[in-house]
Amino acid sequence: MNWNRMSRLLEAIENESPTRIVKAIADELEDLQVTENKKLFLEILDKDSLPANSMALVKAKKWLAKAFDVHTDEIDAMLHAHNDLGEGLYYWDSSAEGTNRHSLLSIKTLLTKNYSKIDSDEFVSFEGTILGMSALERKWFLKYLLRKPRNGINRGLVVKALAKTYSKKLGVVKKHLATCTIGNAILYYEMGEEPVPNLEHGSFVAPMLAKDVPMNKWPSNKIVDYKYDGNRYQIHIDDGNVIVFNRKGKVVTKQFPDVVETAQSYVLKNCILDGEIYPINDDGSPAEHKLMGTRVHSKNVQEAMERVKVKWVIFDCMKINDEIILNLPYSERLEKFIHLPDQAHRMQEGGDVLAFYNRAINDGFEGIIVKDASLPYEPAKRSAGWAKYKPPRIELDVVILSAKYGQGAKANVFATFEMGVDTDTGFMSVGWVGTGFSDVELLRLTSSLRKIIVDYKDDTYSFSPRIVLEVTADLVTEDANGKTGLRFPRCKRIRDDKFVNDINTEEDVEALK
Prior knowledge:
The protein is of the alpha+beta class. The chain folds into three domains: 3-145, DNA ligase, ATP-dependent, N-terminal domain (DNA ligase i, domain 1), CATH 1.10.3260.10; 209-388, D-amino Acid Aminotransferase, Chain A, domain 1 (2-Layer Sandwich); 394-511, CATH 2.40.50.140. It has 19 helices and 18 strands. The strands form four sheets. Strands 10, 11, 12, 13, 14, 15 and 18 form a seven-stranded antiparallel sheet that branches. A five-stranded antiparallel sheet has the order 4-3-5-6-7, with helices on both faces. Helix 3 (35-45) packs antiparallel against helix 12 and helix 4 crosses helix 5. The protein is globular and about 75 Å long.
């Protein structure tokens, strides 16, 4: 398989349904004879896991202008006409047939290069690649180079195609991929073997997740922690070398030098810790979660540290002093790492759960997590063995489907947003939300959403499903026409740390009615 064939496949399935996309990817995998090509094919499709390449839109426009010896204004006009650089270049020179045939390995290498200066060897490589491609190859190369293919192919569909190809249950494949890359999973599947968990320093492990569970289904053998209103992070330590991953598996070490310094003080050889970073006030009490945005998005890290203090807490561990412990019961894992500082606040054995919950709320925290002491760590699984208990309001993770501009002072930003949850056939609307956003958040959302517009009708802009919100509401409603909605929805936070395939489902919403 080469890039020309893959580009034609991407073009053929661009506007197809998720079901047909999964089938097409699975069919292609079955047709491929070379294992390495299967591996590269899915690694490219799983764009979010590709290493960063430092190529952004502004740089891409300048490099294209120089490569084709045209003014940047022409590239801008092309982009404005099609709202996508790849599409624009395709129609600008749709007759280009291409003189080279690029392997998937060479394309993956080009997609993950560190593109530095325009007078560098990287530009020479970029120029030769673009000029030697056909119009269709250019279109999809640019889309994936900028990590914005806008073709509906996300990690969830790639994983479904992988499961279909090798006749495995989706849950089994997800479990494998929690501690193994897609490429390595294919190598094992081709050998007829199950992937071996890879817990090396720097290999991200998809976190175990909590869910809402009725009290009567809480585990009897339980360990109870405070629930912190922060962001989930995973910290890897290897003889003082610290890597901080966010919930998506992106390295964010540079954003938290204070947390890195804390982790470096631990006397450990090689470990993988699971925990949370949350904002605090000067007195150490928990601060409003929205302040985390300053630490996550600020380019001036030092200034962000001065403006927003944070605290790191540990609530689980997968590996410690070179010993892999994720398959041990939680109680035994806890014995291995409880000597470390910065532990999550835990209820004493035999304590009163509701009294502990009241204390958590009084201390300014979200609630509690009730954990099954006998449960192993289950990467990437939303488990009933971790039960969330918070004040009685509905909370859902939703994706933005569409939006409308506001009025008055908000006339230049999107101010109300249609929410969607996941279904087997796409996304189901659960109404609109327009409260809970700061002015800065509305500006940031508007800037991001403008780049992924797919349709406009009756003052409403529709988008590729990319941006996740965490919303809270009084209850789930249903109107006379059977349409589902939320009563008094409010945005709690923008979930930059979540993938779209992490959002709640139609079944979750139905269970709340």
